[in-house]
Specification:
The complex is a heterodimer of chains A (212) and B (469).
Chain A: E1 6-13, H1 21-24, H2 44-47, E2 79-81, H3 94-102, E3 106-109, H4 114-121, E4 126-129, H5 132-144, E5 149-153, E6 158-160, E7 166-168, H6 173-181, H7 185-190, H8 193-206
Chain B: H1 6-12, E1 15-18, E2 24-27, E3 30-33, H2 39-47, E4 58-61, H3 78-94, E5 98-100, H4 110-116, E6 125-128, E7 142-145, H5 148-157, E8 159-162, E9 166-173, H6 182-193, E10 201-206, H7 208-211, H8 215-223, E11 232-234, H9 239-245, H10 254-264, E12 277-282, E13 289-291, E14 299-301, H11 315-328, E15 343-346, H12 354-364, E16 375-378, H13 383-391, H14 394-400, E17 404-405, E18 426-429, E19 444-447, H15 450-459
Parallel strand pairs in B: 3-4, 3-6, 4-5, 6-7, 9-10, 9-12, 10-11, 15-16, 15-18, 16-17, 18-19
Antiparallel strand pairs in B: 1-2, 2-8, 13-14
Helix pairs in contact in B: 2-5, 6-8, 12-15
The chains are: A alpha/beta (212), B alpha/beta (469).
Amino acid sequence: MNPFSVLDGRVAPLDRANVDTDAIIPKQFLKSIKRSGFGPNLFDEWRYLDHGEPGQDCANRPKNPDFVLNQPRYQGAQILLTRDNFGCGSSREHAPWALEDFGFRVLIGSSFADIFFNNCFKNGLLPIVLAQQEVDELFRQCGATEAYRLTVDLAAQTITRPDGKVIPFEVDSFRKECLLNGWDDIGLTLRHAEKIRAFEQKRQADHPYYFA
Amino acid sequence: METQTLYEKLWSSHVVHQEADGTALIYIDRHLVHEVTSPQAFEGLKLAGRKPWRVSSIVATADHNTPTDHWEQGILDPVSRQQVETLDTNIREVGALAYFPFKDARQGIIHVIGPENGVTLPGMTVVCGDSHTSTHGAFACLAHGIGTSEVEHVLATQCLLQKKSKTMLVRVDGALGRCISAKDIALAVIGRIGTAGGTGYAIEFGGSTIRALSMEGRMTLCNMAIEAGARAGLVSVDDRTIDYLRDKPFAPKGDVWNRAVQYWQTLKSDDGARFDKVVELNAVDIQPQVTWGTSPEMVEMVSGRVPDPAAVSDPVKREGIERALKYMGLAPNTPISEIPVDQVFIGSCTNSRIEDLREAAVVVKGRTKAPSIKRVLVVPGSGLVKRQAEAEGLHEIFLAAGFEWREPGCSMCLAMNADRLEPGEHCASTSNRNFEGRQGAGGRTHLVSPAMAAAAAVTGHFVDVRELI
């Protein structure tokens, strides 16, 4: 996983609530057995005017000019501004894979669905929850300013707006450490292998029916 | 002694290690695996030179990509076939407690075959790379969906990194009306608390209405907990839980069974246990539900109307409704009963168990598919469900009505196989998600109970099933 420390990046606003993971990456692309290459199909049904299938060259597909990520002013965005309950629905990790592959590193919204939120941290993506009025103000500024940018500092847990206002955000300290260092969860967990083994042995003795 | 909720009992009995910020390593008893979310995990494991920690925790099947007809032809889509074959290869290399491959007599939707084979047992932690893993909480398991990185983590370490959830009790009391089922309760709950209402919570379903539900009904309810935003749904153990599991193939036998039952009977929330949030519904208020929009919270009683966005003041909500109505091709204030239906889907991990098929068959018996309905798919949840339904003659009722009786799988719930809607088609579906494009690009899904889906199939539009029987 790529470490994350500070990002100064362009912002793209996706102004709708309950964006589900089916919308983020439609089912036909889940047939891949790889972890990479999902970026061109991010938001496929909203982004393109035709129906997408795996293996297509997306460069030649007709794009929906109304969709926010197709607008010139949001090209190269690394920060996605969203609304309530982003990432709801299916647990598919292909959703954060697609967002990351497209180039996003930070998501800012008023709430995220649990499984999606968790999956982001496994892939070097930082989802940030802010109060509703902070999100509303970011949408307003982003809409009013060409090439709107924010600076996100994970170590300091702050977002800095172009007008100089600093917005603090919360993040679990364990997740923060993992993301700052790009640590592999499995390697970390295996440091506790002895503890896991001892727990397992006791559980097997107390509850043999779970170990058939 | 301090009282505890069921969730707290399950959580505390699985904590292996805890970090200072509360992040815990919890031990995983059962790992359910399917073809879509596992290949990258097996590959990651192999690349890192790691071995699975406990192979006997794994139960696997192919369900998302598998066709539901012409099994003799195999899987025609080469990309789907490769994914299913990759699962075959991975399980052959690694091993499992049980594997039900494509065409196996016990193959089926992972959330149907777990309980019916007794691999889901009370008190377990159950994970699967699939959000509807919450289904298994009907057996007082701590069960939730995980991402593919977590699938790899569980394979490698038998543990999951988790933070403790908050607890919510959804209490439903009283007797359900005629033809009202668990699906209507689930949709009514989501309509009440919203699709993010359960975010951060584990939801326990309790109250006399829930106690009176069959295990199938409880599974339907816990299945939809994720649609309310909760990773886990739960129901405390009672005699019904124990009776369901007795003599299931992988359930314990003899003395071990007795010992297990003794423990399982403790797996209920203590009287007076404190929940972070309590939501109460009266069963008598719950009417047949139909979703009209593109999120499960966009739901109404069958006697109701599609909302008018002009009457909504919150701009984000109003635009959400406008967008949904546009996608669904519906005008504001349209009576639900006037929404035309093109296809009907009876199946999915929500509603493809034997009780669901019986519920639909009661409505269909002696009737036929309405002429305006293009297709009705009945897709049993597993090979065992299919055989049971055929032993009861249910398939003959469906076939006589002009419905299609298919092989088991996820099918048109998510349309990864060939079963899908055409753009613009409306579908009365017993599945769990009405998202844009969920059942096929441009398809329009209306979530309903099996009885309501059957009623739509024989009348051509949504109708209160109680008018038919």
